[in-house]
Amino acid sequence: MIALQSVSAGYDKTPIIQDITLDFQPGQVLALIGPNGSGKSTLLKAALRLLPTMQGEVLYDGVNVEKLKRKEIAQKAALLSQHRSTPSIQALRMVLHGRFPYLSYPRQYAKRDWAIARAAMDATGSRAHEDANVATLSGGQQQGVYLAMTLTQDTETVFMDEPTTYLDIRRQLQTVQTARSLAHSGKAVVLVLHDLSLALRSADRVAVLCDGRLQCCDTPQAVFESGVLERVFQVAVHRMETPQGVQYYSSLKEESPCPTFHCL
Asked: Could you count the other beta carbons within 10 Å of the beta carbon of residue 23?
């Protein structure tokens, strides 16, 4: 299990996240939500040691991440990044990059590596594009390929930074379904999402960030009932029972269309 204990991190000696204590539980989907600039991507980078901590520590199964080699970290946690380049490479070859943490130099793929990569492409609906050049695919198709590469890494924890970007509604729901399946298999899954309704109905726990600080982390119902969402996002959040289960939706508050706020 990965856990952050009183972690602060940022850039150029300026903290973006401050005093964050949070863990990612095996078998659960945690949705990380917050306004733009609240520190969600920074938190993921700190958890993966892509960004050094200014305070506190990140623990992997009780071991400080600073004591682990990059290869060891990559065998324990994978990241579907929000920002990335688009190389000119065959999609299947791109997906196989997820096996790099398990290969020694020179990298030679075994039958198992190919099988894991193709299974990941099946799981993300990208198998039909395995021979295509990634650069020629649509944004949604590229997202499927990168998600498959993340799954091919076969780690205990999977971080997805805005995984539904560029996706139509059907593929958004499929991506969340994939996240749920990964959690059901025993993995810890962390989703950075902007869609409040999607986060609330798909996660086991919801962590709310604002101004770089953790405001709340609890079950979707508890987070909804706390009122923190309306305070942080300045919208009205509603909950209703439907034949398909509990659904959430948001609406603008009447008093101010674009309020300026800071979390207390």
From this structure: 15
For residue 88, the enclosing domain spans: 84-154
Helices (H), 188-238: 196-202, 220-226, 228-233
pLDDT confidence band for 127 (50 / 70 / 90)? very high
pLDDT at 166: 78
**Residue 14 lies inside a defined structural domain of this protein:** yes
For the chain, give the percent of residues with pLDDT over 70.
96
Helix (H) or strand (E) run with residue 252 in it = strand 245-252
pLDDT in tens, 235-247: 999 999 999 888 9
Closest CA to 220 of 190, 196, 200: 200
One-letter-per-residue 3-state SS of 11-39: ECCEEEEEEEEEEECCCCEEEEECCCCCC
Name 39's Cβ contacts closer than 8 Å, sequence gap at least 6: 16, 17, 209, 211, 212
Query: 255 by DSSP, 3-state: which?
Result: coil
Same domain, residue pair 142 and 160: no
Question: Same domain for 148 and 47?
Answer: no
Give φ, ψ of 229 to 5 degrees. -65, -40
- What span, in angstroms and rounded, lies between the C-alpha atoms of 175 and 179? 6
What's the rounded mean pLDDT across residues 86-109?
92
Query: Do 65 and 162 lie in a common domain?
Result: yes
- For the cut 60, the answer to whether the pLDDT of residue 260 exceeds it is no
For residue 258, is it within any domain?
Answer: no
Residues 31-46 have pLDDT tens digits of 999 999 999 999 999 9
Last residue of a domain, one of 101, 121, 154: 154
